[in-house]
Amino acid sequence: MKSFKFTGLMAPVFTPYTNGNETLNIQAIEPYVELLKANHVKGVLVNGTSGEGMLLTVAERMLVTEAWQIACKKHGINVMVQIGGAPYPDVVQLAQHASQLDVDAVLCLPELYFKPKTVEKLVSYLQSVAKHCPTIPFFYYHIPMFTDVNVHMPTFLDSAEKKICNFRGIKYTSGDLEQGSACLKEGRTIFLGADSILCGAVAAGFDSFIMTTLNICPEIAFEIISDVNRGAVHEAREKQRKLNELIATILQHGDWVSAMKKAFREGFPSIEVGHTRPPLNV
After folding, report:
1. Do the Cβ atoms of 83 and 108 come closer than 8 Å?
2. Are 205 and 184 contacting, i.e. CB atoms less than 8 angstroms apart?
3. Bridging pattern class, strands 41-46 and 23-24
């Protein structure tokens, strides 16, 4: 069983395209990794929401995962791969592929059509997936605003830890900081996925973060975390306010993924990531 104890910043990377949004731009990945590493980012999440994983074919998801794994291994940063958001046989194939590549961790969405509405059904689904990558640390992707799967996370964690041998935690993308804080426990890794509550989350005890703005302005998150941890709460609150204002400005240009990718494209034009694929706004 591969060990995995991550703290710090992990960027949910955009999938780079060329020719608009038709073709994967694999050549952009290594300079992308170098940019992130130079800005306090210690890991990447591939094929997540920001990476449009659900808009890629299985072959594309595997190809882009392989490219990120090669570049990240070369530069010494972690790779987590999101394998959900597809028909069950494809999720199994992606789990097996992640296992063959020996990535650092796997993240999985719930079944998105036959949605699990209880802790027991959610654990059962994830257990059936996790057995196909048994040596890779396995995480659940809690993002109820997209999945409409909103079971009680502290209860879910207690159950999943008992029934899934390689289960290690969750990516918690919700504004409910009270429930998120109740998930924190020694030995678990709980990644915060909500950029706008970073300051409060750090104060509550979060120490692992997967947030889209880490692609665009990781220095702000790094400073907020540092400020809170050294007791400079006023400074951290002011930086959180500025980060939230920046997010609001970015979102004037479209939906979350398209607008954030546009901001990255404009901020780092030397890394060609292209636009988003339909049905997202381009």
Report:
1. yes
2. yes
3. unpaired
